[in-house]
């Protein structure tokens, strides 16, 4: 099947499928005319990659997971370690986002939101202290 059919069946855009081929994540056969010819197995691998990417795995993680998926002699421990590392990275990102939210909530509460030009939100981004001086951490 062609890339359009593969896109429809896998749920991925054709551009993404071509990119995955370019970086070696998939290798469809080529027909005599040189066009890509995606098999059912290729569609299955593309769906696998779509799911892994939707879970936030990096391209490198996807490459490792795909190799482990193909390896019937794999140890599930190896797969678990990749997933556990990803969970730890997500948890760290959640902590960072919660900290950003708390900071922004504080700044929003400090801003009068009226016609006056003074704005603690912009001052904070510019690294200014309450007295209009640059903070030492901003330099």
TrEMBL record:
| Subcellular localization | Cytoplasm
Question: Looking at the keywords, is Transcription present?
Answer: yes
Q: Does the keyword Protein biosynthesis apply?
A: no
Q: Which domain of life is it from?
A: Bacteria
Q: Which UniProt keywords apply?
A: Cytoplasm, DNA-binding, Transcription, Transcription regulation
Q: What range(s) does the HTH merR-type domain occupy?
A: 1-68
Spell out the NCBIfam families in the cross-references. Answer: CueR
- Protein's recorded name: Cu(I)-responsive transcriptional regulator
What is this organism's lineage? Bacteria, Pseudomonadati, Pseudomonadota, Alphaproteobacteria, Hyphomicrobiales
Protein encoded by which gene: cueR
